[in-house]
Write a sequence for this structure.
């Protein structure tokens, strides 16, 4: 089911509820944590370009899928010369008390196949806007689960996607390196 979740975003007509954070990140490093109910059917936790998330929510999923790459229909070679840009959003897929890990990533896992890890009590998300990188952590042990690039050419928002029902609780206060607590809406920003 978790493997099929990656295709749900592009090929299935299930009800998908997308929640976009009310705070757009435009600089620096930001960290927030959340608890996903282990009985949730399927939840995606991550970040994305504000403009692309809103576009994705308003247009059919198969049109704006990160896997959708329209061919221009001509063989000019122009497609071959472009540098591969980071995706406009990055999500960690969670379901049935487990986290699906992306193929080809350098993840630490007890699973010999490297496919899933147990869902920790809290998941931490750290966005480094200047580096265009998002990291997902076990927020209890601070063990990194997954790291990937994300397009930070505009405002980036935390986002949560619920497929088939689920529950998530955001942790509102997070301390930064100087042990000072700073909150922005429901999300904490580290200076």
């Amino acid at each position: 089911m978790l493997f099929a979740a990656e295709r749900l975003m592009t090929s299935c007509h299930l009800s998908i509820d997308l929640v976009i954070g009310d705070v757009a990140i435009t600089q620096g490093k930001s960290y927030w944590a959340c608890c996903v109910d282990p009985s949730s059917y399927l939840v995606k936790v991550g970040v994305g370009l504000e403009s692309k998330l809103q576009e994705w929510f308003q247009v059919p999923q198969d049109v704006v899928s990160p896997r959708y790459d329209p061919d221009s229909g001509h063989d000019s070679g122009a497609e071959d010369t472009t540098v591969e840009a980071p995706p406009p959003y990055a999500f960690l897929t969670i379901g049935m008390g487990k986290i699906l890990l992306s193929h080809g990533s350098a993840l630490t896992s007890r699973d010999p196949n490297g496919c899933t890890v147990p869902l920790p009590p809290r998941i931490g998300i750290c966005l480094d806007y200047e580096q265009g990188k998002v990291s997902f952590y076990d927020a209890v042990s601070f063990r990194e689960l997954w790291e990937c690039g994300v397009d930070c050419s505009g405002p980036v928002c935390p986002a949560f996607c619920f497929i088939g029902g689920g529950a998530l609780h955001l942790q509102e206060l997070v301390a930064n390196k100087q042990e000072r607590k700073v909150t922005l809406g429901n999300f904490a920003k580290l200076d």
About this structure: The first strand starts at residue 16 and ends at 20. Residues 8 and 26 are 30 Å apart (CA to CA).
